[in-house]
Design goal:
Blueprint: H1 2-5, H2 13-36, H3 44-61, H4 97-112
């Protein structure tokens, strides 16, 4: 995205090297995570590394991209997007025995951890 927008950092040799180093580190952490744990246990080191990489990249985008929300206003003070009011409608859903089995199994795994 940074290259498409022409942000100078993302077109530099430093950014290219960071990208290569990040990819190598993530591969290494995935490999170590696969050896240490089964698929149900999250690899916190991997997640922390991904967050650090994303935050470093976000810093390069600072003050270059506008964020719009449903409440954003145009220059006249009118809403950009006219959405109908939000309504929360609770619904009771009856799960199948197979779905209940899956949920129970996942809950038991979480309790064991």
């Amino acid at each position: 995205m940074g290259r498409l927008l022409g942000i100078p950092h993302f077109l530099s040799e430093q950014a290219y090297q960071e990208e290569k180093d990040d990819a190598a580190l993530l591969r290494q952490l995935r490999r170590v995570g696969d050896e240490e744990t089964d698929a149900m246990v999250p690899n916190n080191r991997l997640r922390d590394c991904q967050i650090e990489i994303a935050q470093r990249m976000q810093n390069q985008f600072a003050n270059r991209i506008l964020r719009r929300t449903a409440n954003s206003l145009d220059w006249k003070g009118d809403k950009l997007i006219k959405l109908p009011p939000y309504h929360d409608i609770p619904i009771i859903v009856k799960l199948t025995p197979r779905e209940m089995e899956i949920i129970t199994e996942l809950a038991d795994n979480v309790k064991d951890r």
